[in-house]
TrEMBL record:
One of its GO terms (biological process) is carbohydrate metabolic process. GO terms for molecular function: hydrolase activity. Coiled coil: none annotated. This is Glycoside hydrolase family 125 protein. Residues 1-24 form the signal peptide. Keywords: Hydrolase, Signal.
Length: 524
């Protein structure tokens, strides 16, 4: 979402009040908007954007050593600076509070803010953690990356048990941090209702549910610490996720044609069409018996046009299938039948995505027909042919592990996503060419989509070209912005977007193994 001025000011006040070293630490919302010396010794002269050590919100010697080691791996001084600034950004700036649950002194909690908005998103925090997956190791230490992960998983479980339809949450009471005001959401009418002291915003997004499974699977696959998942509220939270997903499979009409009650409706007083739902909060009708799960909003926090959002269904199917292994490891610690239920739902979802999510399009000269993945469908034959920059996206399908990048339907879909002729939200221009979306609007390309393009490409020329565009469009600030005008890189949104920063670092670490020669290249 786009913070308005009042939210930024509020975040500033709260941060200053809470950080121990508050007096001398600048608010990062302002710090990240100014250039700081020493500049990188290349033609982009990028700012040094990290806060001074005393003002960082988490210290990790592993990350420090990795950042230092990467100076040998990355030859270009500007590219190394961009990595150095971005990769630690969540640890440097967004670990807002860590502690233990009031009712269980063993239960770690980590409150991770998205950056310039003082709230924790399920999606962002799962992704913010994922950037540190390459350095995640089994570790009981309270100052480890593993501890941060456990704290995020525990807090997400609590959030999902509190308000499973919501996307963004307030600090846990144990932190003593007062809940943030969200002027944009104050007049929302949402079913089911929620407590604004606990919830920052309540947009139901299927990928938020998938994010909880994803961060859990990431932790489990790196540590094999199955016991952790039996200790606190994880199993109950998985059951809440499944119950919510099943409820959101309900179609608009019953067999007799009567309109069914929707478990979720959302209305906002707004001038932006993408901030509210059609049909008095219900959204556009969806057909019966598709096997797909609805999503009222996209990962951009914009409303869907058709509620069967295919990338979110892909991510949910994939994360669910991988989470089965955790449940199996729990043995008697998990309810009987839970693993089977998850496995079956995942398989049925994949079938539904193939059946309803792959659609014919007329291409080229108007006579040839080919099949591609739609971004959204309604099950009646309606399809939205586009991609949106946020993850999950169609572009990211191989990155999410849903399919192989060589999959022919994916390859055809990808070619259209990366074409201004076929994707209404592909931005082109002299500065940067990338997928955007309605959230920041036409003209605004999203570097996050450029990063995903690199992560899903094996083509050196494509990777180098896209990397060059990312590197040259930070407006000298050396951070990854949410969106950048494709004709004028001095026009951008969100100076402090920790997830996008982490994703850039994650992509560089991926290239280190996959394409080390590219990192040895000059970008001057
Ligand atoms: C991180 O380390 C610095 C010293 O290098 C210290 O001043 C700061 O308080 C530490 N931050 C945290 C969150 O422990
Ligand atoms: C950095 O390099 C040193 C020396 O080769 C090595 O011992 C250390 O493990 C590396 N750190 C990381 C995080 O890879
Ligand atoms: C249209 O393009 C397809 C391949 O893209 C080709 O097979 C077909 O012959 C073309 N039709 C005409 C009328 O040019």
């Amino acid at each position: 979402m786009k913070p308005d001025g009042s939210q930024i000011i509020l975040a500033t006040a709260l941060l200053a009040a809470d950080l121990g070293t508050s007096q001398s630490c600048p608010d990062y919302s302002s710090h990240s908007k100014a250039r700081h010396e020493p500049f990188s010794p290349g033609k982009h002269a990028l700012s040094y954007a990290r806060p001074i050590p005393a003002c960082r919100t988490f210290n990790s010697s592993t990350i420090e050593s990795l950042v230092a080691n990467m100076s040998d791996v990355i030859a270009d001084p500007d590219l190394h600076r961009l990595f150095e600034n971005t990769y630690p950004n969540t640890l440097d700036t967004a670990i807002r509070w860590r502690g233990f649950a009031a009712n269980n002194p063993e239960e770690e909690l980590t409150f991770v803010i998205t950056g310039d908005i003082d709230a924790m998103w399920l999606r962002d925090s799962a992704n913010q953690m994922q950037s540190y997956l390459p350095v995640l190791e089994p570790d009981d230490g309270v100052d480890s990356i593993a501890s941060l992960y456990r704290g995020v998983i525990n807090l997400q479980a609590r959030y999902l048990l509190t308000a499973p339809y919501c996307n963004s949450f307030q600090p846990p009471v144990e932190s003593g941090i007062p809940p943030a005001d969200n002027p944009g959401a104050n007049k929302d009418t949402v079913v089911p209702g929620y407590d604004p002291a606990k919830v920052f915003e309540c947009k139901y997004e299927l990928d938020s549910l998938a994010a909880f499974l994803r961060v859990s699977v990431d932790y489990y696959e790196a540590t094999h610490d199955a016991a952790f998942f039996g200790r606190f509220q994880w199993v109950s939270a998985v059951q809440a996720v499944l119950a919510t997903a099943r409820a959101m499979m309900r179609p608009t009409y019953g067999e007799d044609g009567a309109v069914l009650d929707s478990p979720y409706t959302f209305e906002r007083q707004t001038t932006r069409a993408t901030e509210t739902l059609a049909n008095d909060g219900l959204g556009s009708p969806v057909a019966r018996d598709t096997g797909l799960i609805r999503s009222a909003f996209r990962p951009s926090d914009d409303s869907t046009i058709f509620q069967f959002l295919i990338p979110a269904n892909m991510m949910f199917a994939q994360s669910l299938a991988e989470a089965v292994f955790i449940v199996q490891e729990l043995g008697e610690g998990a309810p009987q039948g839970l693993a089977d239920e998850m496995r079956t739902l995942s398989r049925q979802l994949r079938e539904a995505i193939t059946r309803f999510g792959i659609v014919p399009v007329v291409s080229g000269n108007g006579t040839a027909v080919e099949t591609v993945y739609a971004y959204e469908v309604d099950g009646y034959g309606g399809a939205v042919l586009m991609d949106d920059a946020n993850v999950p996206s169609l572009l990211a399908a191989p990155f999410m592990g849903y399919l192989a990048a060589t999959d022919p339907v994916y390859q055809r879909t990808r070619a259209r996503i990366l074409s201004a002729k076929a994707n209404p939200y592909f931005m082109t221009g002299p500065q940067i060419n990338a997928v955007g979306g309605p959230h920041a609007g036409p003209g605004m390309a999203w570097p996050m989509a450029s990063i995903v393009r690199i992560l899903t490409s094996d083509d050196d020329e494509e990777i180098v070209g896209v990397l060059r565009e990312i590197l040259s469009t930070t407006d000298g600030l050396g951070l990854i912005h949410e969106s950048v005008n494709s004709f004028d890189a001095s026009r951008w949104t969100r100076q402090w977007f920790s997830w996008a920063n982490g994703l850039f670092g994650q992509m560089i670490l991926d290239l280190r193994f996959r394409k080390p020669h590219i990192l040895q290249q000059s970008f001057q």
